[in-house]
Design a protein that fits this description.
This protein has five helices and seven strands. By secondary structure, the chain is α/β, with parallel strands linked by helices. The radius of gyration is 16 Å and the shape is globular. The longest helix is centred in the N-terminal third of the chain and has 18 residues. The strands form two sheets. Strands 4-3-5-6-7 form a five-stranded parallel β-sheet, sandwiched between helices. A two-stranded antiparallel sheet has the order 1-2. Helix 1 packs across helix 2 and helix 3 crosses helix 4. InterPro entries: AMP-dep_synth/lig_dom, ANL_N_sf, Mitochondrial_ACSM. It is an enzyme of class 6 (ligase). Belongs to the ATP-dependent AMP-binding enzyme family.
């Protein structure tokens, strides 16, 4: 029909050459699903804080868009944070939710007893952990 394909809205490539490409329509759909996870599964409301301690995986960008959609405040953290750093951020921000990778989940679990505001924990990964919701499965 003479039309050229649309440019992707999102194009991610990791060190192994694995690619994720989303059209604007797909990005909108997935960010709405992620927003539903934050508001329904995690019970977050406008103004609540969520800490994301993730490497720059595709879900990082979905969560940014989902937080904008829901009015939830995203507190970003580098994946180099220690358990002590994570605890400080949880306490200072009064975050109700934390989102991290399978690799960093043990550091979070070690400080959960001292995090009185934390209500839900999301992991971004292929496996499941006791007491954690899996973002990929929920989306």
């Amino acid at each position: 029909d003479g039309r050229k394909p649309a440019n992707p809205a999102f194009w991610w490539v990791n060190e192994e050459g694995e690619e994720v490409k989303w059209s604007f329509e797909e990005l909108g759909f997935l960010s709405r699903k992620a927003a539903n996870v934050l508001s329904e599964a995690c019970g977050l409301q406008r103004g609540d804080r969520v800490i994301a301690v993730l490497p720059r995986v595709p879900e990082w960008w979905l969560l940014n868009a989902a937080c904008m959609r829901t009015g939830v405040v995203l507190v970003p953290g580098t994946s180099q944070l220690t358990a002590k750093d994570i605890l400080y951020r949880l306490q200072a921000s009064k975050a109700k939710c934390i989102i991290t990778s399978d690799t960093l989940a043990p550091a979070v679990e070690s400080v959960v007893p001292d995090s009185q505001f934390l209500k839900s924990k999301l992991t971004v990964g292929k496996g499941s952990r006791d007491g954690w919701l899996n973002l990929r499965e929920l989306i």
